[in-house]
Amino acid sequence: MLEAKITSLNDLLASIHPDDREKMRKFVNIDSTEFKTLEYRMILPDQPIAYIRATKYARYLENDHTIMDGFSQNVSDFMKNRNELEMVLAVVHNAPYSIFACHTDGQLAFANKACRQQNGLSDEEEITHMLVYERLKNFSSKEEWEAFFQKVQDAAGYLQYRCDIPYPEMDIIGSECSSLIIKNGNGEDIVWTIQRDISDQIRYEEQLLRSKEAAEESEKLKSAFISNMNHEIRTPLSAIIGFGNIIAETPDPELRKEYGEILTTNSNQLLRLISDVLEMSQMDAGKMRFNADLVSLQSILNELSLSFSNLEDHPVLIIDIPEKELTVQLDRGRIMQVLVNLINNSMKFTPPHGAVHIGYRIGEDFFELYVKDNGIGIPKHLQQSIFNRFFKINETAKGTGLGLSICKAIIEQMHGTITVESEEGQGTTFSIKLPIHNPDL
Fold first, then answer.
1. CA triplet 130, 131, 137: central angle to 5 degrees?
2. Are 172 and 118 in contact (CB under 8 A)?
3. Residue 133 CB: number of other CB atoms within 10 A?
4. Could you read off the pLDDT of 360-398 as tens digits, one per residue?
5. Which DSSP string do the residues of 212-275 spell out, in sequence order?
6. CA-based max dimension of the chain
7. Three-state DSSP class for 59?
8. Which end of the chain has fewer beta carbons closer than 10 Å to its terminal beta carbon, N or C?
9. CA distance 189 to 109
10. CB count, 10 Å around CB of 13?
């Protein structure tokens, strides 16, 4: 046993860190339970700072001197370990990952700051009385927790997996998780789980998948387009060349006229094909031009009525006369191009005894043109695809499959939208919504 040593207060203070001397004075001089134990730093020659814990158990007067009995311990190693532990706990608590720990029965033992934020727990809230399957989003029932714990045990106490639990308020859609079983100081199994947000990685993977699917679909459509163009171009060209030679050798005026009409029809068909391809190239190059002017919508309807009048073996075009005339700033040629395309499509899929309606409605700051028919309609599952390039509902039908995609591009360039509503066997309605005041045109 060490022999007791009497030391003066001044000698003691001289060896104590300056920042701790005032605390030592109070510790020695005040007879209070508040100061029965004190931790302080001691400076010794040629030695690192020592952490000391002093304990007093008696204070009394003797020969006009105040005597204090007690003992001190060098707790430097303990303080070092405690500081390191506090540093580790601070890192875990403030880590950018969600970290929580549970007893085997699901009772929470720890949850760091990120875990609390994701699950709506405050930093001050005591959690050790809570059950993980009642308070955290990771588990919805006791059975689910027990099955998960068994899974971690079966994986030799360490399990890696992906968690798809969303945390909308944190913009998290998925996490990469690691769960491991570690024994605490009492020998109890504690399940620790670390969740790392991988939302950006998931979004990137989804984007890559969409890009891959879009590229494959585009390649498929291009192949179909090339095959189709080969047929579409060769057919009118063969007719033009063949009937051109026949006309040159036909003396009959009536036959020459009939063959001439066939030549004109095939020439127009070939011209439309070439125009569609050139239009698509201009769109890709960003060279689509617009020439805006004040245009009466009623005059557009009248012009379309004249253009499609007296067509044999075609449905009738009916103009729905609006209640109010409207004059707007837009590119007349482009809007006519779109409407003619829509009307031709409607007539193509409407029986000769049917009808195609065209008109417009006026909103607060927009107007809406529509082309409506009572034809065969479009299947629901194809309605979102009809504006895609090279898409055709009937692959054997004439055309490049570019018309509606060009219409959509034109309308969007004019800051509008084009939509379709259709029921099989009932008909189809295309609607074009455009702003009444369009400063960019």
1. 110
2. yes
3. 19
4. 999 888 999 999 999 999 988 888 888 887 777 776 666
5. HHHHHHHHHHHHHHHHHHHHHHHHHHHHHHHHHHHHHT---HHHHHHHHHHHHHHHHHHHHHHH
6. 152
7. strand
8. N
9. 11
10. 15
